[in-house]
């Protein structure tokens, strides 16, 4: 892929290129559920031990709270993610960017149909903050929707997870899509949840823009980023997506994410809230 010549755009792309998100999801096993002793079955049918699994909506196991999650509010996400908002982001990508011909607002909205709680929990302010946070990370990871795939196309096979998510010969599980989903176990879990063969055909994420957006929204959901944002602030979402940028390890990258977030919050007419950094 060719990076655009614009200096500002180049800086954003380089940040995205060299601070590639590992997207290490919580070690969870998709069982739907049938979890082993000591593991909780989350509201989405995954096994694990964190609050995302044992908290609200937990179906079985040592649940810490069994109350159903609150009903979605009446926010229409498409009325916030307008064509003008989306186009302002993708319009900053260079004309040679493959992502400019791949990503679209229509694909996002179609993917959104599978995630009815995204951007629809709590107050309207909460909704706008969540949408701003999601697109802040997307803009950072893809360079304003320039990149579909990461530049360094490593294999990303985590041998400790191959029993449940075997790495297939000749397949690479490098970053793809709006949040650059990475690693065999993420492809395996996302594929099972979304209805595609993530282990045998990880390239589906690069070829189908709706699936690409679905993997990003899936990652957002399975890592409980909605709750992290609303309870702890934007900084908690940076730590969940790329903890290597936190605690001063990569202040430029963290600052870029915060800049996107505060900018989008301003466009939506809401304050960004507290704890912006990690």
TrEMBL record:
* Domain of life the protein comes from: Eukaryota
Q: Give the first-level EC class, as a single word.
A: hydrolase
Keyword terms of this UniProt record? Carbohydrate metabolism, Chitin degradation, Chitin-binding, Disulfide bond, Glycosidase, Hydrolase, Plant defense, Polysaccharide degradation, Signal
Q: Which reaction does it catalyse?
A: Random endo-hydrolysis of N-acetyl-beta-D-glucosaminide (1->4)-beta-linkages in chitin and chitodextrins
The cross-references to InterPro entries, in alphabetical order and at most eight, read:
Chitin-bd_1, Chitin-binding_1_CS, Endochitinase-like_sf, Glyco_hydro_19, Glyco_hydro_19_cat, Lysozyme-like_dom_sf
> Mind telling me which Pfam families this protein's record contains?
Chitin_bind_1, Glyco_hydro_19
The record places the active site at 141 (proton donor)
SUPFAM superfamilies from the UniProt entry: Lysozyme-like, Plant lectins/antimicrobial peptides
Q: Which GO terms describe its biological process?
A: cell wall macromolecule catabolic process; chitin catabolic process; defense response; polysaccharide catabolic process
Chitin-binding type-1 domain mapped to chain residues: 30-65
Recall the GO molecular function terms of this protein's record. chitin binding; endochitinase activity
Determine if Protease is one of this entry's keywords.
no
Q: Where is the signal peptide?
A: 1-30
Q: Which SMART domains match?
A: ChtBD1
**What S-S linkages are listed for this chain?**
35-47, 40-54, 97-146, 157-167, 246-278
The record's EC number reads 3.2.1.14
Please report which protein family the annotation says this sequence is part of: Belongs to the glycosyl hydrolase 19 family. Chitinase class I subfamily.
Q: Do you know which PANTHER family this protein is assigned to?
A: CHITINASE FAMILY PROTEIN, CHITINASE-RELATED
Q: What is this protein called?
A: chitinase
What is the native source organism of this protein? Corymbia citriodora subsp. variegata
